[in-house]
TrEMBL record:
The chain crosses the membrane at residues 259-284, 304-322, 400-419, 431-451, 493-516. This is V-type proton ATPase subunit a. InterPro entries: V-ATPase_116kDa_su. Keywords: Hydrogen ion transport, Ion transport, Membrane, Transmembrane, Transmembrane helix, Transport. Belongs to the V-ATPase 116 kDa subunit family. It comes from Cochlearius cochlearius (Boat-billed heron). Its main location: membrane. Signal peptide: none annotated.
Amino acid sequence: SFVAGVIHPWRVSAFERLLWRACRGYLVASFVEMPEPMEDPATGESITWVIFLISYWGEQIGQKIRKISDCFHCHMYPYPESEASRADTMSGLHSQIQDLSVVSWAPWRGLGGHARTPLSLTRAGHPQVLEETEQYLAQVLDKVVLALPTWRVQVQKMKAIYLILNQCSFDVTEKCLIAEVWCPVRDLTQVQEALRQGSYKSGSSVECFVQRIPTSESPPTLIRTNKFTAGFQSIVDAYGVASYQEVNPAPYAIITFPFIFAIMFGDVGHGLLMFLFALWMVLYENSPSLRQASNEIWLTFFEGRYLILLMGAFSIYTGFIYNECFSKATVIFPSAWSVATMANHSSWSPAYLATHPSLTLDPNITGVFRGPYPFGIDPIWSLATNHLNFLNSFKMKMSVVLGIVHMGFGVLLGIFNHVHFQQRHRLVLELLPEMVFLLALFGYLVFLIFYKWVKFSAADSRVAPSILIHFIDMFLFTSNAENRPLYRGQVPVQTVLVVLALASVPVLLLGTPLYLCCRRHTRRTGHPAPAAVGEQEPLLEGQEAGNSVNATKEDMENGGHSPDAEHLDFAEVFMHQAIHTIEYCLGCVSNTASYLRLWALSLAHARES
């Protein structure tokens, strides 16, 4: 018997040696190089292959040869044993080669359903047929491109349907599917109508129906978004999803997040470039080339196009405040500082100007400083040698003020949660201590900043005390004789504020757990009031109470929970409150320090640009 095939030239020596050892010489092998190189179908490399023909004795030897050939990735071909069969095979191969050179086959007409037909041509007509074939294939691909979006939608719908069906369970008779889902109350009518239409169109003898299942579990949170709010909601969800019926902070983040970014990136030129880039994505958001891009980084930018748009707009606004356009000051209004007045008052001579490259403008001299700049920072500060010191003080204080206002606003949002869930005790035992702790320490810092701005002017600015030293002395319950007080009785006031802040911590830690424990003890010793039965109302039109979907108004408004429902595990409540207290107190300190990054990154952006 014979085995024929081709092998890579680099593997011939090892292949021949292994064949000889494994078959113990019961074979005759012949190796011949191809006259012309051929392309490797796997790698596309042009290789001069080696043709081998092996004659062997015994079927076991043949199996060994075939296994070794497979291990060496040889391409095997059938080799007839009789001379007549080999002659027939050779003539057939020659005929196929001749046919390939003079015959072209029309492609399958897949869209029209016509079978292919061989076209016998002369050598002169062969290039024309190939050109027509390429044109036809191009037309087919053009039609496929038009139909591809529809096919993709159909496939996605089928995958979604089968995914939902796989999550359903069979009933006892294994003839119906049962799905337990959470559904918004206002969408129940649409769900029921969709089930009815599905039953009608499928011709099912059993109509689909919806029935409410009583449960004590808290429903999941559903937040409806659109293409504008989806990016902001994703940022909020990255930090945590609000519980059912809690206040969603995402609408407020639509303003605060871009504005805080703009504080760090305040530049008219850079903000305009960002705004125009986002505006281009918004205007062409329906373009398939933008939506269906495979680059993950690009998709991240595209999904946040409205976020980038607002960040660019706010950066333009803060850029006007900083008076920076590509890190260069712009003169929109005349400067409020008069160099001519200072020169006339000081009688600067040419010799003085030659020896003093830096000149000082004294605002205490009448006419040198004529009032604040109409909007933003005066452009003359870009020429000053103390420009960085001035921006350091301004941006650091601004970051602290905005950060504490932002944190206070977040704490005040808890009022809506406590009132909605009828947990008014948390207003006194949680919200009040939180605000006392925040305002007594960091709210007082904001007060010191504004008080110093108002009290001290250019005339006495050199003797103004340091707010930072006062704030440190406040926690140490000491006073510094070298740092004069801002107002009378400052040390006693600061002592009282620190004591109030420290006293609010145990109230925040123990207030809610002790209140819940006392209320549970009162309920056990007293007589609980009988539970009121709410009136059942059908949620869907055309359905009676007791059938299909029914819920009380209380269930609809409170998600199936009574407002008095409390978790009475004291250890768990205390542990939760302890974690909340530690997180809040440490968060006030760390977040205030974190807001200083607005100042640092803003200066870095101005310096590096």
